[in-house]
């Protein structure tokens, strides 16, 4: 394809920033000029999203979305973070907590494109598909 | 069933249920358009992997890109919204298979659509499979008896062969295929008819016809209708061949008809263009050859050591104004082991089936004929070839010598004998008798208009008066001098009675 993917643009911006350590401000000016010249400035949110992913990956940080029916307690949160750090061998964990009463109970953890569903609703849905399966 | 038993059953089912906690790979819908979904995430998805949508629809991942996955939706895409969660299944698309599928009409996903209830089976077959390798194969030498005189005599098809049926619209391509299915009764053959992008009314008519002919007992129809998504048209032939493979794996012989592969290529072109794959000649994508070659390569004859069985394929291609040098026709001609070429001109001249004997060919040839048929058909082929040459040439002059005249008359009678009504397949032994009488010159004095009548009478008469000949041909596939003498006498007797 003729166009360059957002991921590739983000990647090169990141690598450029590594090389220009010290005079970042002039470098970022150049980046913005480049994006404007190439008519990519409207795509900036997507590129930033990719850039964030790259930066997080390089720094060993993972973003985790945790959905629960009730607000997490501090010990639960601490244990969850420790467990996630071990599982994904990450240095740091950014937790994004969502409270959703519809989950009924348990916890649902989303890391990137991986989902670990331990909620009561998930279990009920699984039971539903099991009972409605065609034999 | 009383309420208590329902509750008891439910309890039992729930007790059997166990939840396995596992990490699921999910993605989210970024864009939906024209049956295509762009999905973010789905990190470790494989090509052709099945994915599921929250509304229950199934999709197949076709394009794996840097930051997104292109998925085709097999079914209705109107319920899919941006942001929907897409789950990877880790499996290649598969269809349910069972012996009870015989006589059913199923969709491209193998789900019955004939209102006769669900298939009760746990067995599934993946729709994409690598074709059997070279050591498992055997050369084709057993005939498929199509019951169509011109095919069985001149373009014989063997079990495991791939014979293309090609021609313009309304030249009788489907009719030929249906006749072939109808004639498989009692021939130990299972038939799969794959309808790709056809009108539902046509399919309904066809099913009724097969039902009336008692052919549905050994036939499966796979249908991806014109109103359904292009993605379903794309997978339908693979579904059909997977069903065929299920029966072949039981050592059975299967006949599969793809009606038609031009629409299949068009459906694939639509999908490819929507997925932004670069277009090539006639806007078809670069892998359109592989699309058909990997499908038709799955037709084969397996040797006994690897379980036997065979799949004979009749792909159908529709040409535009007789142009067989377009992209898809040339592709499929080069993949198959021969083609049956149907022509509009012949059709309107009243030569039906409108097979152009000159451009039709079977690369397996006479090794797929019984010995008796080989003997009579050899002379017939020669007669017809000479006739075609003389026919063009004789239009200029009226002064023709005796032998030329005789050849012309013989040729006209050959053409007349090869005409055949739709839904009227002819048994092999009857064909042998007819061609015997024709090539030995017994029909030369019969007026052209009375050939059909003569043929019909001859079969009835010889069946009664040349029993030895029939017995020899059906049992040992060749006649002896004794049988031949008997047949000769019967033909002469009938002829003298007929001319009075």
The geometry of chain B reads as elongated
Major beta sheet summary of chain B: 8 strands, mixed
Distance between the termini of chain A: 45 Å
- Roughly what percent helix of chain B? 25-40%
**Mean model confidence by pLDDT of chain A:** 86
Return the structural class of chain B: alpha/beta
Strands of the widest sheet of chain A, in order across it, are 2-1-3-4
Shape of chain A: elongated
What does this structure look like?
The complex is a heterodimer of chains A (135) and B (500). Chain A contains five helices and four strands, in the order αααβαβββα. Chain A has 135 residues and is an alpha+beta fold. A four-stranded mixed beta sheet of chain A has the order 2-1-3-4. Chain B has 500 residues and is an alpha/beta fold. Chain B is 39% helix and 18% strand. Chain B is built from 15 helices and 16 strands. In chain B, strands 8-12-11-13-14-10-15-16 form an eight-stranded mixed beta sheet, with helices on both faces. Chain B has a six-stranded antiparallel beta barrel with strand order 1-2-5-4-3-6. In chain B, a hairpin with a 4-residue loop joins strand 4 and strand 5. In chain B, helix 5 packs across helix 6. At the A-B interface, helix 1, strand 4 and helix 5 of A face helix 1 and strand 1 of B. Strand 4 of chain A pairs antiparallel with strand 1 of chain B.
Q: Which terms would index this structure?
A:
heterodimer, A: alpha+beta, four-stranded mixed sheet, 52% helix, elongated, B: alpha/beta, six-stranded antiparallel barrel, 18% strand
Per-chain topology:
The complex is a heterodimer of chains A (135) and B (500).
Chain A: H1 6-19, H2 24-37, H3 44-59, E1 61-68, H4 74-87, E2 92-99, E3 107-111, E4 114-117, H5 120-131
Parallel strand pairs in A: 1-2
Antiparallel strand pairs in A: 1-3, 3-4
Helix pairs in contact in A: 1-3
Chain B: H1 3-16, E1 23-33, E2 36-41, E3 49-52, E4 58-64, E5 69-74, E6 85-92, E7 94-96, E8 105-107, E9 124-126, H2 149-154, E10 164-167, H3 173-182, E11 189-196, H4 200-212, E12 219-224, H5 230-248, E13 253-259, H6 261-274, H7 288-296, E14 310-318, H8 327-335, E15 338-342, H9 344-348, E16 361-362, H10 371-394, H11 402-418, H12 428-439, H13 451-465, H14 467-476, H15 481-499
Parallel strand pairs in B: 8-12, 10-14, 10-15, 11-12, 11-13, 13-14
Antiparallel strand pairs in B: 1-2, 1-6, 2-5, 3-4, 3-6, 4-5, 7-9, 15-16
């Amino acid at each position: 394809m003729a166009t360059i993917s957002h991921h590739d643009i983000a990647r090169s911006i990141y690598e450029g920033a590594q090389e220009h350590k010290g005079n970042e401000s002039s470098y970022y000016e150049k980046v913005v000029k480049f994006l404007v010249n190439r008519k990519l400035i409207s795509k900036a949110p997507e590129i930033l999203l990719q850039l964030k992913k790259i930066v997080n990956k390089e720094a060993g940080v993972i973003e985790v979305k945790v959905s629960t029916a009730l607000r997490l307690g501090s010990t639960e949160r601490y244990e969850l973070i420790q467990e996630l750090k071990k599982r994904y061998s990450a240095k740091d964990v950014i937790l994004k907590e969502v409270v959703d009463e519809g989950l009924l109970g348990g916890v649902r953890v989303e890391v990137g494109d991986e989902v670990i569903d331990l909620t009561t609703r998930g279990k009920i849905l699984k039971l539903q598909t099991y009972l409605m399966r065609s034999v | 069933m009383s309420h208590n038993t329902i509750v008891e059953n439910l309890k039992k089912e729930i007790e059997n249920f166990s939840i396995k906690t596992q990490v699921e790979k999910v993605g989210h819908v970024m864009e939906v358009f024209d049956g295509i979904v762009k999905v973010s995430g789905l990190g470790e998805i494989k090509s052709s992997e099945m994915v599921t949508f929250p509304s229950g629809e199934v999709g197949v991942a076709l394009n794996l890109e840097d930051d997104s996955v292109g998925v085709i939706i097999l079914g209705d895409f109107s319920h899919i919204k941006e942001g929907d969660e897409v789950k990877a299944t880790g499996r290649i698309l598969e269809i349910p298979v069972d012996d009870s599928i015989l006589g059913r009409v199923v969709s491209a996903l193998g789900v019955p659509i004939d209102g006769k209830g669900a298939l009760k089976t746990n067995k599934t077959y993946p729709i994409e499979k690598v074709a059997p390798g070279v050591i498992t194969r055997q050369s084709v030498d057993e005939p498929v008896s199509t019951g169509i005189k011109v095919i069985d005599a001149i373009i014989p098809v063997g079990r495991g062969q791939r014979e293309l049926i090609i021609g313009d619209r309304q030249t009788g391509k489907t009719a030929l295929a249906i006749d072939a299915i109808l004639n498989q009764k009692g021939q130990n053959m299972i038939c799969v008819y794959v309808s790709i992008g056809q009108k539902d009314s046509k399919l309904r008519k066809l099913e009724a016809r097969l039902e009336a002919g008692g052919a549905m007992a050994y036939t499966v129809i796979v249908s991806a209708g014109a109103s359904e998504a292009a993605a379903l048209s794309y997978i339908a032939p693979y579904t059909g061949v997977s069903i065929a493979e299920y029966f072949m794996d039981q050592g059975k012989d299967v006949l599969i008809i793809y009606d038609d592969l031009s629409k299949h290529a068009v459906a694939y072109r639509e999908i490819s263009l929507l997925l932004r794959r670069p277009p090539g000649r006639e806007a078809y994508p670069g892998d359109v050859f592989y699309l058909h070659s990997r499908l038709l390569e799955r037709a084969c004859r397996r040797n006994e050591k690897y379980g036997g069985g065979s799949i004979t394929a009749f792909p159908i291609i529709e040409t535009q104004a007789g142009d067989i040098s377009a992209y898809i026709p040339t592709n499929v001609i080069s993949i198959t082991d021969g083609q049956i070429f149907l022509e509009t001109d012949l059709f309107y001249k009243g030569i039906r089936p409108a097979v152009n004997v000159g451009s039709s060919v079977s690369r397996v040839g006479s090794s797929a004929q019984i010995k008796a048929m080989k003997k009579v058909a050899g002379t017939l082929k020669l007669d017809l070839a000479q006739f075609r040459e003389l026919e063009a040439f004789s239009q200029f002059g009226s002064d023709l010598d005796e032998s030329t005249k005789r050849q012309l008359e013989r040729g006209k009678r050959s053409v007349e004998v090869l005409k055949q009504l739709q839904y009227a397949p002819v048994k092999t032994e009857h064909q042998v008798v007819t061609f015997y009488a024709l090539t030995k010159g017994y029909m030369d004095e019969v007026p052209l208009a009375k050939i059909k009548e003569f043929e019909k009478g001859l079969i009835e008469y010889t069946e009664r008066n040349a029993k030895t000949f029939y017995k020899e041909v059906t049992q040992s596939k060749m006649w002896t001098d004794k049988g031949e003498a008997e047949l000769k006498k019967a033909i002469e007797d009938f002829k003298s009675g007929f001319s009075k």
